[in-house]
Amino acid sequence: MNEEQGMRFSRRLLPVAERLESVNRTVGLLVSWLALAMVLVTFVVVVLRYAFDSGSIALQESVTYMHAMLFMLGAAFTLQQNGHVRVDILYQRFSRRGRAWVDLLGTLLLLFPVSVFLLVASWDYVAESWAVLEGSREAGGIPGVWALKTLILLMPLLLLVQGLIWVLRNGLFLAGVEAALPEPGARLETDADG
Predict the structure, then answer these.
(1) Under-50 pLDDT residues of the chain
(2) Which of 77, 79, 94, 193 has the fewest Cβ atoms within 10 Å of its own Cβ atom?
(3) Is 2 helix (H, G, I), strand (E, B) or coil?
(4) What angle do the packed helices 3-52 and 57-80 form, to 10 degrees?
(5) CA 119 distance to own-chain centroid
(6) Where is the Tripartite ATP-independent periplasmic transporters DctQ component domain (predicted)?
(7) Residue 18: which of 134, 192, 188 has the closest Cα?
(8) In the chain, what are the domain boundaries?
(9) 100-119, pLDDT tens digit by residue?
(10) C-alpha pair distances (Å), 107 with each of 20, 111, 118, 167
Protein backbone atom coordinates (compact mmCIF):
# COMPACT_ATOMS: atom_id res chain seq x y z
CA MET A 1 0.00 0.00 0.00
CA ASN A 2 1.53 3.31 -1.03
CA GLU A 3 1.25 6.54 0.98
CA GLU A 4 -1.68 7.91 -1.02
CA GLN A 5 -3.69 4.71 -0.57
CA GLY A 6 -2.84 4.77 3.13
CA MET A 7 -4.13 8.33 3.49
CA ARG A 8 -7.37 7.47 1.67
CA PHE A 9 -7.80 4.44 3.92
CA SER A 10 -7.18 6.50 7.04
CA ARG A 11 -9.64 9.18 5.88
CA ARG A 12 -12.30 6.46 5.76
CA LEU A 13 -11.40 5.03 9.18
CA LEU A 14 -11.37 8.29 11.14
CA PRO A 15 -15.07 9.04 10.44
CA VAL A 16 -15.88 5.48 11.57
CA ALA A 17 -14.12 6.18 14.88
CA GLU A 18 -15.99 9.48 15.20
CA ARG A 19 -19.38 7.83 14.57
CA LEU A 20 -18.61 5.11 17.12
CA GLU A 21 -17.52 7.77 19.62
CA SER A 22 -20.83 9.53 19.18
CA VAL A 23 -22.61 6.33 20.28
CA ASN A 24 -20.70 6.15 23.57
CA ARG A 25 -20.93 9.91 24.01
CA THR A 26 -24.70 9.90 23.51
CA VAL A 27 -25.23 6.97 25.86
CA GLY A 28 -22.92 8.55 28.46
CA LEU A 29 -24.60 11.95 28.32
CA LEU A 30 -28.07 10.40 28.53
CA VAL A 31 -27.31 8.17 31.51
CA SER A 32 -25.52 11.02 33.31
CA TRP A 33 -28.98 12.48 33.96
CA LEU A 34 -29.73 9.42 36.07
CA ALA A 35 -27.59 10.87 38.85
CA LEU A 36 -30.08 13.71 39.22
CA ALA A 37 -33.03 11.33 38.88
CA MET A 38 -31.59 9.12 41.65
CA VAL A 39 -31.37 12.10 44.01
CA LEU A 40 -34.92 13.19 43.22
CA VAL A 41 -36.42 9.70 43.58
CA THR A 42 -34.53 9.12 46.83
CA PHE A 43 -35.91 12.42 48.11
CA VAL A 44 -39.44 11.33 47.16
CA VAL A 45 -38.94 7.96 48.91
CA VAL A 46 -37.79 9.69 52.10
CA VAL A 47 -40.63 12.23 52.03
CA LEU A 48 -43.18 9.45 51.45
CA ARG A 49 -41.77 7.39 54.31
CA TYR A 50 -41.32 10.06 56.96
CA ALA A 51 -43.97 12.64 56.06
CA PHE A 52 -46.75 10.35 54.86
CA ASP A 53 -45.81 7.02 56.50
CA SER A 54 -46.06 5.41 53.07
CA GLY A 55 -43.63 3.67 50.78
CA SER A 56 -43.13 2.00 47.45
CA ILE A 57 -40.86 -0.99 46.88
CA ALA A 58 -40.81 -0.27 43.13
CA LEU A 59 -39.74 3.32 43.75
CA GLN A 60 -36.96 2.16 46.05
CA GLU A 61 -35.82 -0.48 43.56
CA SER A 62 -35.83 2.12 40.78
CA VAL A 63 -32.91 3.85 42.52
CA THR A 64 -30.93 0.60 42.30
CA TYR A 65 -31.83 0.26 38.61
CA MET A 66 -30.78 3.84 37.87
CA HIS A 67 -27.54 3.36 39.81
CA ALA A 68 -26.73 0.24 37.80
CA MET A 69 -27.55 1.97 34.51
CA LEU A 70 -25.47 5.02 35.42
CA PHE A 71 -22.34 3.04 36.17
CA MET A 72 -22.61 0.18 33.72
CA LEU A 73 -23.72 2.20 30.71
CA GLY A 74 -21.51 5.15 31.65
CA ALA A 75 -18.30 3.12 31.97
CA ALA A 76 -17.40 3.38 28.27
CA PHE A 77 -18.11 7.13 28.20
CA THR A 78 -15.92 7.59 31.27
CA LEU A 79 -13.19 5.60 29.52
CA GLN A 80 -13.62 7.79 26.43
CA GLN A 81 -13.13 10.91 28.57
CA ASN A 82 -10.07 9.43 30.38
CA GLY A 83 -12.08 9.58 33.60
CA HIS A 84 -11.09 6.21 35.05
CA VAL A 85 -8.43 6.03 37.73
CA ARG A 86 -5.06 4.87 36.48
CA VAL A 87 -1.45 5.05 37.55
CA ASP A 88 0.34 7.64 35.43
CA ILE A 89 3.79 7.39 36.98
CA LEU A 90 5.43 6.29 33.72
CA TYR A 91 2.67 7.10 31.21
CA GLN A 92 2.85 10.86 31.82
CA ARG A 93 6.55 10.86 30.94
CA PHE A 94 6.06 9.12 27.60
CA SER A 95 5.92 10.97 24.30
CA ARG A 96 2.63 11.11 22.40
CA ARG A 97 3.83 8.19 20.34
CA GLY A 98 4.74 6.21 23.47
CA ARG A 99 1.33 6.90 24.97
CA ALA A 100 -0.32 5.78 21.75
CA TRP A 101 1.58 2.48 21.96
CA VAL A 102 0.58 2.00 25.62
CA ASP A 103 -3.07 2.77 24.85
CA LEU A 104 -3.09 0.51 21.79
CA LEU A 105 -1.43 -2.43 23.55
CA GLY A 106 -3.47 -1.91 26.72
CA THR A 107 -6.65 -2.02 24.69
CA LEU A 108 -5.64 -5.12 22.75
CA LEU A 109 -4.13 -7.03 25.68
CA LEU A 110 -6.33 -5.92 28.58
CA LEU A 111 -9.57 -4.16 27.62
CA PHE A 112 -10.59 -6.53 24.82
CA PRO A 113 -9.89 -9.79 26.71
CA VAL A 114 -11.63 -8.60 29.89
CA SER A 115 -14.66 -7.34 27.95
CA VAL A 116 -14.94 -10.57 25.97
CA PHE A 117 -14.58 -12.57 29.19
CA LEU A 118 -17.40 -10.57 30.79
CA LEU A 119 -19.62 -11.22 27.76
CA VAL A 120 -18.92 -14.94 27.66
CA ALA A 121 -19.08 -15.49 31.43
CA SER A 122 -22.36 -13.64 31.90
CA TRP A 123 -24.21 -14.72 28.76
CA ASP A 124 -25.93 -17.77 30.31
CA TYR A 125 -26.74 -15.88 33.50
CA VAL A 126 -28.51 -13.14 31.54
CA ALA A 127 -30.14 -15.62 29.15
CA GLU A 128 -31.65 -17.56 32.07
CA SER A 129 -33.11 -14.35 33.44
CA TRP A 130 -34.61 -13.53 30.04
CA ALA A 131 -36.00 -17.06 29.66
CA VAL A 132 -38.20 -16.66 32.74
CA LEU A 133 -38.61 -12.86 32.46
CA GLU A 134 -37.24 -12.62 35.98
CA GLY A 135 -38.90 -10.08 38.22
CA SER A 136 -38.37 -8.67 41.66
CA ARG A 137 -38.40 -11.00 44.65
CA GLU A 138 -40.26 -8.33 46.61
CA ALA A 139 -44.02 -7.94 46.39
CA GLY A 140 -44.67 -4.68 44.58
CA GLY A 141 -41.16 -4.58 43.13
CA ILE A 142 -40.13 -3.91 39.55
CA PRO A 143 -40.86 -6.92 37.32
CA GLY A 144 -37.87 -6.20 35.07
CA VAL A 145 -34.86 -7.83 36.73
CA TRP A 146 -34.18 -9.44 33.35
CA ALA A 147 -33.72 -5.94 31.88
CA LEU A 148 -31.42 -4.95 34.74
CA LYS A 149 -29.25 -8.03 34.18
CA THR A 150 -29.01 -7.16 30.48
CA LEU A 151 -26.74 -4.30 31.55
CA ILE A 152 -24.13 -6.95 32.37
CA LEU A 153 -23.89 -7.59 28.61
CA LEU A 154 -24.30 -4.00 27.45
CA MET A 155 -21.38 -2.69 29.52
CA PRO A 156 -18.70 -4.89 27.89
CA LEU A 157 -20.24 -4.27 24.46
CA LEU A 158 -19.91 -0.50 24.92
CA LEU A 159 -16.38 -0.99 26.28
CA LEU A 160 -15.53 -3.02 23.17
CA VAL A 161 -16.85 -0.19 21.01
CA GLN A 162 -14.63 2.27 22.90
CA GLY A 163 -11.72 -0.15 22.57
CA LEU A 164 -12.25 -0.31 18.81
CA ILE A 165 -12.23 3.49 18.71
CA TRP A 166 -8.92 3.55 20.58
CA VAL A 167 -7.42 0.91 18.30
CA LEU A 168 -8.47 2.95 15.25
CA ARG A 169 -7.31 6.30 16.66
CA ASN A 170 -4.01 5.07 18.10
CA GLY A 171 -3.31 2.87 15.09
CA LEU A 172 -3.91 5.77 12.71
CA PHE A 173 -1.78 8.08 14.85
CA LEU A 174 1.07 5.57 14.87
CA ALA A 175 0.67 5.29 11.08
CA GLY A 176 1.27 9.04 10.80
CA VAL A 177 -2.22 10.57 10.94
CA GLU A 178 -1.72 13.29 13.56
CA ALA A 179 -5.41 14.28 13.55
CA ALA A 180 -6.42 10.81 14.79
CA LEU A 181 -5.59 11.70 18.41
CA PRO A 182 -6.56 14.86 20.26
CA GLU A 183 -3.77 16.95 21.75
CA PRO A 184 -2.35 15.67 25.06
CA GLY A 185 -4.45 16.77 28.01
CA ALA A 186 -7.37 17.70 25.79
CA ARG A 187 -10.52 15.70 26.21
CA LEU A 188 -12.81 14.93 23.35
CA GLU A 189 -15.46 17.59 22.86
CA THR A 190 -18.93 16.57 23.94
CA ASP A 191 -22.25 17.87 22.74
CA ALA A 192 -22.74 19.51 26.13
CA ASP A 193 -19.52 21.50 25.67
CA GLY A 194 -20.99 23.25 22.65
Answers:
(1) 1, 188-194
(2) 193
(3) coil
(4) 160
(5) 14
(6) 38-164
(7) 188
(8) 3-185
(9) 898 899 899 999 999 999 99
(10) 16, 5, 15, 7
